[in-house]
């Protein structure tokens, strides 16, 4: 017997594997209906979290690269490009490697990296508000959503997790989770109400609920535009 | 002025940016026509080459993970998953880091990692054969193609490069290149005839043409199936 795990079986229902026939059908319907407008930019930057505690950093890196935010410093050779290892704006990454990252700190990191970040705790808004933001970001290239949720709501193993939302199927009211733990679960469709339920789990250390980050390019004055 | 480059302008024509309106239109048409069947599995594993010389390793890693080939050893924690750094089946990766990787060696690596790999030099087949294989792999999840080409054919800067083909638009006879140098160019559609032209450039050190690798899961005898 080999040691370790080769992926985990995606609990389905409630999730629908993006690579399955049903997942492809949902994808095509949503694409035709115009609620996958942000998909192309986000999927072009899909990545695996490089450390088991880097789900937040990987999600943010995907979104920053998707929004074409210039990090202003080099990654490799002459190229400026966001990599998780470069998200040290708020201090060294050792604590993230040890413990993961808090909701507030991830929002700060996005802001310091040059994005506009609006943070929403599930306790402070309604599911209708959440659906409104999902609809907004799925119908443009202008913003992306990083969900902070507890996997138990999706019957998945392990606890708190971050991943971007890659699109929306309005007819079925389902979102496409681009899970950065790709070694574990493939991208999957889940009912919007369930990811919302996952956002409503409280974080033990703070007593606050999870939620989501709405990330976009910062507004520039006309004279700042090139 | 910042040092370095923030991406390169995609020469268009001949390429069409996947994230542009025209790129999305081509994508939807191809998807509806059933020649993006391999897209979902491949895009679910899209990644950036982690070294400037790792285009071959990144392309192979994408394809191995897409085909759900179990590496039989752990990546991080308990998880078995292909990472470029694990493609050392044919020896240490120092020479790849220094010089990139040859067509034969990349094929060997794929084979040693557990895949079935068929290598085609452009000089040995016809464009019609190439189109046949592209059609085959774009209409199933069973195989993926890694193109080995010279960027000059696409009016792109720098020389030889590897990247997987993510799909096919039969009506326009265009392929979707999932460029692993994502810090440089986004995924892009190009005429199949031009990537074929890029495969026909000779490699200086060998005098042989480039070509493509057709990668699939190895055939298993019925009694080997679980």
From TrEMBL, chains A, B:
Its EC number is 2.3.2.15. GO terms for molecular function: glutathione gamma-glutamylcysteinyltransferase activity; metal ion binding. It comes from the Eukaryota. SUPFAM superfamilies: Cysteine proteinases. Pfam families: Phytochelatin. Keywords: Acyltransferase, Cadmium, Metal-binding, Transferase. GO terms for biological process: cellular detoxification of cadmium ion; detoxification of copper ion; phytochelatin biosynthetic process. Residues 1-220 form the Peptidase C83 domain. PROSITE patterns: PCS. Involved in the synthesis of phytochelatins (PC) and homophytochelatins (hPC), the heavy-metal-binding peptides of plants. This is glutathione gamma-glutamylcysteinyltransferase. It comes from Arachis duranensis (Wild peanut).
